[in-house]
Write a structure and sequence with these properties.
Layout: H1 10-14, E1 34-35, E2 41-43, E3 53-60, E4 63-69, E5 75-81, E6 84-90, E7 96-100, E8 104-109, E9 115-120, E10 123-127, E11 137-149, E12 155-166, H2 167-171
């Protein structure tokens, strides 16, 4: 998913995305779908976890399909699907965890820069201090949920049915 991880990627941040399987062979996107590659990202100590964190896709087969555009041609609604595994590393200690965040979502990009995500997880969600309905952290949110990302970056995650996995605790 083209993420604001998220802002590194939901975003990722950013809430993710590409078509390079772990085997090294290139996957062809289905008609109407195109690769949506995810870049590696870094956040400093205290931003998501108490320590600095590096994220890097180790499996990245996500693709996107534009469903609608605004009158000016900019993307309004886009769907994401495909396998994504992100290695999340505590760069202070080297501890890491491979997070399977191979969910699917439809993301609405609003004119004011905000976004609305309808998700069938899991996806990776990073939350800054005071900027979300979840505490500061880095999470795998799995299940059926919505995420409303305001233009100021506040993330309101609403689980219909699902779980959250605190990745900071996994790599502390």
């Amino acid at each position: 998913m083209h993420r604001t991880l998220l802002a590194p990627a939901l975003a990722l941040a950013a809430v993710l995305l590409g078509t390079q399987p772990a085997s090294g062979t290139t996957q062809q996107a289905a008609p109407g779908w195109e690769p949506a590659p995810s870049a590696p990202w870094d956040v400093g100590a205290g931003v998501r976890c108490d320590f600095p964190v590096h994220g890097e896709p180790v499996v990245d087969e996500v693709e996107q399909r534009v469903l609608s555009t605004h009158p000016d041609g900019s993307v309004r609604r886009v769907a994401y699907r495909g396998d994504l595994v992100v290695r999340v590393t505590n760069t202070a200690t080297g501890a890491s965890h491979d997070a399977d965040v191979s969910g699917s979502a439809v993301v609405e990009h609003r004119r004011d820069g905000s976004q609305f995500w309808a998700v069938r997880g899991p996806v990776l969600v990073g939350v800054g201090a005071g900027l979300g309905s979840l505490p500061r952290g880095l999470y795998v949110v799995d299940g059926v949920f919505t995420m409303d990302i305001r233009a100021d970056g506040f993330k309101d995650v609403r689980l219909v049915h699902g779980t959250t996995d605190d990745l900071c605790a996994r790599i502390d």
